[in-house]
Amino acid sequence: MQGLSAEVQRGTIPQDTILKFRKGEIIFSQGDPGDCWFEVVSGTVRTCHFHVDGHRQLTGFFYQGDVFGVEYGLRDAAAEAVTNTILTRHPVLNMEPDSFGQNRALERALDSANQCIFLLGRRNANERVAAFLLIAAKRLSALGSIPLPMTRSDIADHLGLTIHTVSRTISGFVRQGLIELEGPQLCRLVDLEGLRAIAGEEAGLAIDNMGAMRPRRSFSGQGIGA
């Protein structure tokens, strides 16, 4: 748990505590006890499952307002800060299993898991990358340019593709006039209908109905901000 302060590691941290992580820091490790869950105040987080052979499976990206680490028992994946990140840490309320915050967190965690399953269910690379971009834009409420702070390797591991395939697919979308790259970590969606057509009708309906795009609120009662 390299990214946590000594206070957190000793277990003396109070409820609903704001924590800051630098880019690349570990938030929690695979196999750690799931005694808390997190809400993203700002920044981007990735979760990764490491197999015994060393292979990394990137299981999700989490943006402002998303929650992660909602699980009981030992954690099945590690969490790392993709960018400088601010999180709210919520303890698991063992005495109040039906608390509003935990129930809403479980709902959002299920949304994220369903999105991952949906992405991997796309038939080819074009469909997966198009759906990934549309989902990122929807989750970030980005109408034009969307930040992509993760690496091509991260995207490839998330979509079950190779880095070469991801780069080739994105370059193809640029040539077709579907997207424009505004620097290494910023993408503008030029032709939303074109991307939706590539992702497929089923993808468009699923993205429209994404529960993750319900109005966001902070479970701790604090407004989102620095």
Q: How do the helices and strands line up, and which of them pair or pack?
A:
Blueprint: H1 6-9, E1 17-21, E2 26-28, E3 36-42, E4 45-50, E5 56-62, E6 67-68, E7 78-81, E8 85-91, H2 100-120, H3 125-139, E9 145-147, H4 152-159, H5 163-175, E10 179-181, E11 186-189, H6 192-199, H7 201-208
Antiparallel strand pairs: 1-8, 2-7, 3-6, 3-8, 4-5, 4-7, 9-11, 10-11
Biggest pleated-sheet summary: 4 strands, antiparallel
- Described by the principal axes of the CA atoms, the overall outline is globular
The H/E string reads HEEEEEEEEHHEHHEEHH
- Estimate the helix proportion, in percent: 25-40%
- In total, the number of strands is 11
Please give a handful of descriptors for the protein shown.
alpha+beta, four-stranded antiparallel beta sheet
Written description of the protein model:
- This protein is of the alpha+beta class and 226 residues long.
- It is built from seven helices and eleven strands.
- The strands form three sheets. A four-stranded antiparallel beta sheet has the order 1-8-3-6. The chain has a four-stranded antiparallel beta sheet with strand order 2-7-4-5.
- α4 (152-159) packs across α5.
- The protein is globular.
- The model is unreliable at 1-13 and 212-226 (pLDDT under 50).
Q: What is this structure, in a nutshell?
A:
By secondary structure, the protein is α+β, with helices and mostly antiparallel strands. Helix content is 34%, strand content 23%. It has helices at 6-9, 100-120, 125-139, 152-159, 163-175, 192-199, 201-208; strands spanning 17-21, 26-28, 36-42, 45-50, 56-62, 67-68, 78-81, 85-91, 145-147, 179-181, 186-189.
